[in-house]
Amino acid sequence: MSRLEGVFSQLKANQRKALVSYVVAGDPSPEGTAELLHQLVAAGADVLEVGVPFSDPMSEGVVIQQGHERALANGMTLRGVLQIVAEFREQDQSTPIVMMGYANPIERFGYERFAAAGAEAGVDGLITVDLPPEEVERLESALREHELDNIFLISPTTPEDRIRTIVDRASGFIYYVAVKGVTGSGQLNVTEVADRVSLIRSMTALPIAVGFGIKDADSARAVAGVADAVVVGSALIDQMVRAGSTDSSLDEIQIHQAAVKLLQSIREGVDSSRS
Question: How many CA atoms, within 13 angstroms, populate the side-chain half-sphere of residue 177?
Fold first, then answer.
C-alpha cells in the first residue's frame, strides 16, 4: 500500500477528512523549506504538496506566482526540489508528498529520469498542471514503473466525458478545482462543489480533494463536509508574505509560524465538519 493509500484509508476508518497543504519549494528559502514542511505536518497536514517553481505558472494567482518568482530568484531547480524532499524524508517516512508543477521542467529533466529520482527522494505522486490526459502516456508509464501516483485536476468546466477520461487514468486522488480561474481567485460556492464532487464520485472510488478558494477555517469546514480532502496553498503563502512585510525583524522560523497558525485553524475547521 502506498503512503497516499495508507493515509486516506486510515482517515476514512477514523471518519476524518484529509488536510493537504501546498507551499512552493524554495520560498521563503531553499534552506528552510524542509523545516517548513515538518512544521506543517506538526500543525495538522496529512499530505504535503510541494510546488516546483516555474517561470510561467499560468494556473496560479498572484500570490503563488510571486512565490515561484522568489524561489527561482533563490536558485531553486527541479533537482533542488528533489533534494528538499530527500532532506524531509530523513526525519519523516510516513507523510505523503506530492510534487505539483508544469510539464516543461519535467520534460527537460526526462520522464524516466524524473520518476526514478522522485522515487529515490521519497516522492509519492505528481500533479502536472498543464499536461492533459491525452498527452500523458509517456510520463504515466515512467511514473507507474516507479510506483508514483499520477494525479489530475478537474475543473468546474470539465465536461462529463472528459471527467471519465481523467478518472480512468488517475491514481492517488482526484484534485477538484473549486473555483473558475487561477489559484486564490473566485468565490467558493459549496453547493456547486458538492454537486460536482458527487458527479466525480459516481465515476471513481479514488479520494476527492478540493482546493482553490480555501482561505480559512469556515471555508475548510464547508468543503470538508462534501469532499475527502481539503487543499490550502495561497492562503498559507500569503500569511508568510504578510508576516515578513509587517515585521522585517522576523527570522524565517517566525515567518513560517504565520502559515502554521493558519493551518492549525484550518485543521480545526476540517475536523469540526464531523460534528
Answer: 21
